[in-house]
Design a protein that fits this description.
Layout (H helix, E strand, L loop, with lengths): L5 E2 L24 E8 L2 E9 L11 H4 L2 E3 L2 E5 L5 E4 L1 H14 L7 H14 L11 E10 L12 E10 L7 E5 L17 H6 L1 H9 L4 E5 L7 E4 L3 E6 L2 E5 L9 H12 L4 E4 L3 H9 L3 E8 L3 E10 L2 E4 L8 H14 L9 E3 L8
Parallel strand pairs: 1-3, 9-10, 9-16, 13-14
Antiparallel strand pairs: 2-3, 2-8, 4-7, 5-6, 5-7, 6-18, 7-8, 10-11, 12-13, 12-15, 15-16, 16-17
The structure holds 2-OXO-4-methylpentanoic acid (COI).
2-OXO-4-methylpentanoic acid binds next to loops.
Length: about 350
């Protein structure tokens, strides 16, 4: 191990309170968390401590100007009970891409990887055993200067905590193609995983929910015609056997699950098209009876089927899930790779190293 991560273990594990057959998303947290502080241009005081609240100064810059970024990743157990990560280095890289956009310091990739290995090795008992469930890992960084002038903070905190999760969406989702609010435009922060993007999505999502839909399907910020992404997912359409997804254009999050699916589908011989995708093309395909499937993809959501999409006065009711082919197949492939049921030929699955942690 290259870094000196100090470990203080909890005196009283809460693991026996968890019902792995009934895990709500995002409400159960494991015993420990990793913490590091950035001061004088360096990440210092690397530590794993019992998961617990911490205090924050009222003038802490993150609370005022939103310099805050995060990742979402997962660890699962393979059929032999070995804990595994999925493409962890992609998350280490992406958080630094977000940091750069938000004028925050890099977090060294090798430290990120060492921290998640150490933390998940320690709390591996929290990884749910069932395929499709996982230990969700939430790395995040925020500004901590006690100052209310507008400038980048000089100090930051980086935390990683984890918690067992089941599926994010329990059933197929319904979407409204948003025609009033926008999530992002090229040149904005849409490609960064920064908290403000999610804050800005809350009101449109609430309006969609009041109309009986689960989420918003974001459209481009100029014409409200080109599809971007959905609440917490990238989005894929199957039109007459071809898979089409919006090209990332600077306003769309570069999903790691999205990338994985593009690679897998192309290897399986599907025609996969990344392009600016006009909503009229989707409506026309629906009217011809050629819109066969729509699914969203993301770390939390994995692959979530879309049941219907509202656009203006049209409601596109999509074919029943039972008749779908590509969405269910690709979901099974990802679940299978994570559980070790399907052989990983890409080097995507990485065993969690069982480390000797000194208390
Ligand atoms: C993830 O898919 O991990 C995300 O970050 C979505 C999250 C906002 C639930």
């Amino acid at each position: 191990m290259k870094y000196d991560i100090k470990v203080s273990k909890t005196k009283q594990s809460r693991l026996n309170e968890v019902d792995f057959d009934n895990i709500p998303f995002g409400r159960v947290f494991s015993d420990h968390m990793f913490v590091a502080d950035y001061e004088n241009g360096k990440w210092t005081d690397l530590r794993i401590v019992p998961f617990a609240p911490f205090s924050i100064h009222p003038a802490s810059m993150v609370l005022h100007y939103g310099q805050s970024i995060f990742e979402g990743m997962k660890a699962s157990k393979n059929e032999n009970g070995q804990p595994m990560f999925f493409r962890p280095e992609m998350h280490a890289k992406r958080i630094n891409a977000s940091a750069q956009r938000m004028c925050m310091p890099d977090f060294p990739e090798d430290l990120f990887l060492e921290a998640i290995h150490s933390l998940v090795a320690l709390d591996q008992g929290w990884i749910p055993p069932q395929e499709g469930s996982a230990l969700y890992i939430r790395p995040y960084m925020f500004a901590t200067d006690e100052f209310i002038g507008v400038r980048p903070s000089d100090t930051y905190r980086f935390i990683i905590f984890t918690g067992p999760v089941g599926p994010y969406y329990a059933k197929p989702v319904s979407l409204i193609a948003e025609q009033t609010y926008i999530r992002a435009v090229a040149g904005g922060t849409g490609e960064a995983k920064t908290s403000g993007n999610y804050a800005a999505s809350l009101l449109p999502a609430r309006v969609a929910q009041e109309k009986g839909y689960d989420q918003v399907m974001w459209m481009d910020g100029k014409e409200f015609k080109y599809i971007q992404e959905v609440g917490t997912m990238n989005i894929f359409f199957v039109i007459n056997g071809k898979v089409v997804t919006p090209a990332t254009d600077g306003a769309i999050l570069k999903g790691i699950t999205r990338d994985t699916i593009l690679i897998l589908l192309r290897e399986k011989g599907y025609e996969v098209i990344e392009k600016p995708l006009h909503i009229d093309e989707v409506v026309a395909a629906f009217d011809r009876g050629e819109l066969q499937e729509v699914f969203g993809t993301g770390t939390a959501a994995v692959v979530s089927h879309v049941a219907k999409i509202a656009y203006g006065d049209r409601v596109l009711e999509l074919p029943a899930i039972e008749g779908r082919k590509i969405g269910p197949m690709i979901k099974d492939e990802i679940d299978g790779l994570r559980s070790g049921r399907i052989e990983d030929t890409h080097g995507w699955v990485e065993e969690v190293k069982t480390l000797e942690l000194v208390d």
